[in-house]
TrEMBL record:
<dbReference type="GO" id="GO:0043022">
    <property type="term" value="F:ribosome binding"/>
</dbReference>
<dbReference type="GO" id="GO:0005737">
    <property type="term" value="C:cytoplasm"/>
</dbReference>
<keyword id="KW-0342">GTP-binding</keyword>
<dbReference type="GO" id="GO:0046872">
    <property type="term" value="F:metal ion binding"/>
</dbReference>
<keyword id="KW-0963">Cytoplasm</keyword>
<feature type="domain" description="Hflx-type G">
    <location>
        <begin position="226"/>
        <end position="337"/>
    </location>
</feature>
<feature type="binding site">
    <location>
        <position position="239"/>
    </location>
    <ligand>
        <name>Mg(2+)</name>
    </ligand>
</feature>
<dbReference type="InterPro" id="IPR006073">
    <property type="entry name" value="GTP-bd"/>
</dbReference>
<dbReference type="InterPro" id="IPR032305">
    <property type="entry name" value="GTP-bd_M"/>
</dbReference>
<keyword id="KW-0547">Nucleotide-binding</keyword>
<keyword id="KW-0479">Metal-binding</keyword>
<feature type="binding site">
    <location>
        <begin position="257"/>
        <end position="261"/>
    </location>
    <ligand>
        <name>GTP</name>
    </ligand>
</feature>
<dbReference type="InterPro" id="IPR027417">
    <property type="entry name" value="P-loop_NTPase"/>
</dbReference>
<feature type="coiled-coil region">
    <location>
        <begin position="185"/>
        <end position="219"/>
    </location>
</feature>
<feature type="binding site">
    <location>
        <begin position="279"/>
        <end position="282"/>
    </location>
    <ligand>
        <name>GTP</name>
    </ligand>
</feature>
<dbReference type="InterPro" id="IPR042108">
    <property type="entry name" value="GTPase_HflX_N_sf"/>
</dbReference>
<dbReference type="InterPro" id="IPR025121">
    <property type="entry name" value="GTPase_HflX_N"/>
</dbReference>
Length: 337
């Protein structure tokens, strides 16, 4: 494992008086690289460099104030079903976690529920995958009721397949009072049922949000002001540009996902035409489908815009790969890109 030690003392997450010390790892598998290259049929492959992936993963971790004490790239031939990385790498990581007193290990890669549980057991530390980390960021960034609803829905969909029993007995809860209650259901079944009910309520609430937003868009269309939606990779500078164009004071900072809730402001262009600019959540590579679906209400501001302005940070060495990621998400939203 190519290890790097980093320290980011600003704004660490604290649980009581204890700062969360974290390791950030980027698993890289040769099997996936060769498959991607083969699928290109000889065309040029725009693939994010491993170092760039590590830098982005560390940026995601820093966005929630983790104290990153170790980071690195973990190479392998193929993912292992039980622990994603090989047994030797797990043992090496276990020693690092113990010696550095690490409480959280972030894998910049999807983890199955089984892999996550096995790794937490082996490492004796909390484990998050890329999706879980992004959800943590979204949970901290959401400010509006709509944003909080969307984050909760995405989080519940993520957790739905990760419910595990926290006890060892196999007895079943009784489904009613006395001897007439019937066999009932296991605790895990009860948890899943309650989770599904909550998801349905959230989807209903978000549908109401969509209808309200649609009414607002209908009213805006009656006014002669076209909507220009700013889209782009996270931390590409959308909010900074939005503030310069509109004179607004939207939170703009060198952080991934600094903007989560959409903001609209009217501005007058130099030739006198009034337009409405929309600042939207930034995109990121490997954005899970259910997360995109949860933020559909927000992303509809992009879908309904007359102009979609793609903001790119051309100084970023991975600008081209980022542009492809943004284009893919826009195409998933049926927007020509």
């Amino acid at each position: 494992m190519a290890e790097r030690k980093e320290s980011r003392p600003k704004g660490p997450i604290e649980h009581g008086s204890v700062i969360t010390r974290a390791a950030v790892l980027v698993p890289v598998f040769k099997q996936f690289q060769s498959r991607d290259e083969a699928s290109q049929g000889g065309s040029e492959l725009v693939r994010r460099s491993d170092d760039a992936r590590l830098e982005e993963a560390m940026g995601l971790a820093a966005a929630i104030g983790l104290d990153i004490v170790a980071s690195g790239i973990v190479s392998g031939v193929r993912p292992r079903p039980a622990t994603l990385i090989g047994a030797g790498k797990v043992d090496e990581l276990k020693g690092l976690v113990a010696s550095e007193e690490i409480g959280l290990v972030v894998f910049d890669h999807p983890l199955t529920p089984v892999q996550q549980r096995n790794l937490e057991k082996e490492l004796d530390a909390k484990v998050l995958d890329r999706t879980g980390l992004i959800l943590e960021i979204f949970g901290q960034r959401a400010r509006t009721k709509e944003g909080r609803l969307q984050v909760e829905l995405a989080h519940l969909n993520y957790q739905r397949g990760r419910l595990v029993r926290s006890w060892t007995h196999l007895e079943r809860q009784r489904g009613g009072a006395g001897f007439l209650g019937g066999p009932g259901e296991t605790q895990i079944e009860s948890d899943r049922r309650q989770l599904q009910e909550r998801i349905k309520r959230l989807e209903k609430d978000l549908e109401s949000v969509r209808r309200t937003r649609q009414l607002h868009r209908t009213k805006r269309k009656k006014a002669p002001h076209p909507v220009v939606a700013l889209v782009g990779y996270t931390n590409a500078g959308k909010s900074t540009l939005f503030n310069r164009l509109t004179g607004a004071d939207v939170f703009a900072k060198d952080l991934l996902f600094a903007t989560l809730d959409p903001t609209l402001r009217r501005a007058t262009l130099p030739h006198g035409t009034d337009v409405i600019f929309s600042d939207t959540v930034g995109f990121v590579s490997d954005l899970p489908t259910h997360l995109v679906a949860a933020f559909r209400a927000t992303l509809e501001e992009v879908i309904e815009a007359e102009i979609v302005l793609h903001v790119r940070d051309m100084a970023d060495p991975d600008s081209l790969a980022q542009a492809e990621d943004v284009g893919k998400i826009l195409r998933d939203l049926d927007i020509d890109a």
